[in-house]
Amino acid sequence: MLRFPGRGHRDPGDVVIGPLDLFARVDEALAVQALAFGLDSEEIAVRRQIVLRHMVYRGARALGATTPDGRLVGFVYGMPNDRTHWWSTVVEPYLRAQGNNDWLDDSFVITELHVHPRHQNRGIGRALITTITDSATEPRSILSAIDTDSPARGLYHSLGYTDLARQVFFPSAPRPYAVMGAPLPLRRR
Ligand SMILES: CC(C)(COP(=O)(O)OP(=O)(O)OC[C@H]1O[C@@H](n2cnc3c(N)ncnc32)[C@H](O)[C@@H]1OP(=O)(O)O)[C@@H](O)C(=O)NCCC(=O)NCCS
Questions:
Q1: C-alpha Rg value of the chain to the nearest Å
Q2: DSSP characters for 123-169?
Q3: Please, where are the H alpha helices in 35-77?
Q4: Which residues pair with 174 in a beta bridge?
Q5: Which ligand 1 atom is at minimum distance from the Cα of 144?
Q6: What's domain 2-183's architecture?
Q7: Which residue ranges have their beta carbon within 6 Å of ligand 1?
Q8: Residue nearest atom 30 of ligand 1, based on CA coordinates
Q9: Do residues 74 and 116 touch, judged by C-beta distance below 8 A?
Q10: CA within 13 Å, CB half, 52
Q11: How far, in Å, is the centroid of ligand 1 from the Cα of 182?
Q12: Is the dihedral of CA 137, 88, 74, 183 positive or negative?
């Protein structure tokens, strides 16, 4: 467990980063994601099924950021990439077109990373993603993020992720994504 005192102007509390049973706490996690990322109730219901399915994939694991009174305020989950998984099949042609197809092998995928808006910008997101990737046996990590200048993209760049493909369209997602990859362990400040 990693105690994380925070450094923001809001009351930091004492957030702890540790293993998360995402099966048991999927609704709390999706409540955080809904606030952080913006999901309506229909999207939450769809995501719920996806998250529960992901959790049975080989090597899938999750970490949570929890306040002293037990509230989940952030989470990350991911798994070793598998070329047969839906996400991988969507990004594969885009990566291939850029000569980056081999990033889909021996990579740990960050599937979701979200921090409750009241707890953002205190280092919790950075702690979640570095801690989960530190325990990966793969030499690299990949993920997708909305292709815009966001805090998420800023964080990923600062951790050593670079763009492997841009303007990647997922079926039913209105906005294009960037696929990013970084060598592991992630870069420290
Ligand atoms: C992305 C997210 C998880 C980051 O979590 P966080 O706890 O706020 O991030 P941290 O405090 O650990 O890291 C902050 C880093 O993000 C980046 N960042 C934060 N705010 C930023 C901003 N307004 N513009 C650019 N970069 C910013 C910086 O690189 C910053 O690093 P620094 O500490 O050196 O300044 C969080 O902002 C979030 O939940 N966003 C909404 C959901 C989302 O986009 N999730 C990712 C989906 S791909």
A1: 16
A2: SHHHHHHHHHHHT--SSEEEEEEESSS-HHHHHHHHTT-EEEEEEE-
A3: 41-54
A4: none
A5: 48
A6: 3-Layer(aba) Sandwich (3.40)
A7: 36-37, 113-115, 120-126, 145, 150-152, 154-155, 158
A8: 155
A9: yes
A10: 11
A11: 17
A12: positive
- By most ligand atoms within 8 Å of CB, the mutation choice from 115, 122, 129, 153 for ligand 1 is 115
pTM here? 0.94
Q: Encode pLDDT of 40-95 as tens digits.
A: 999 999 999 999 999 999 999 999 999 999 999 999 999 999 999 999 999 999 99
Per-domain boundaries in the chain = 2-183
171 Cα to the center of ligand 1, angstroms: 26
Between helices 41-54 and 26-33, what is the axis angle to 10°? Answer: 130
Task: Report residue 100 as tokens.
Answer: 């980056």
| 12, 14, 139 from 6: Cα distances, Å | 5, 7, 29
